[in-house]
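hiii so um. not sure if this is the right channel but i have a protein structure encoded as tokens and i wanna go backwards to a sequence. like what aa goes where. can anyone help
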């Protein structure tokens, strides 16, 4: 399912027009992305948790030259599905 299909499905299930459903989806995704970027976790009961995951700096190797390099610390977004979401997906 792509973004357009998701908007159409939300519009159909909620009775909203496509423009309003698109604005709602955009607002939801922007709010989640902003919160995670600020270091907060966003938990949606029955669905899951979006959170930032911190990776420590570490040593690595350049695969072309074999030279040792330092890989900088980073933060990346992660999603942990809720048990109810896992059950729903595994039964289909």
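sure thing!! here u go:
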């Amino acid at each position: 399912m792509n973004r357009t299909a998701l908007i159409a499905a939300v519009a159909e299930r909620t009775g909203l027009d496509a423009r309003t459903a698109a604005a709602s989806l955009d607002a939801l995704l922007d709010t989640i992305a902003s919160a995670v970027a600020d270091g907060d976790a966003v938990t949606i009961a029955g669905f899951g948790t979006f959170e930032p995951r911190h990776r420590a700096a570490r040593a690595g190797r350049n695969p072309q030259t074999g030279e040792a390099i330092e890989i900088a610390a980073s933060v990346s977004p992660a999603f942990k599905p809720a048990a109810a979401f896992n059950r729903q997906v595994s039964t289909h």
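oh and Residues 24 and 72 are 36 Å apart (CA to CA).
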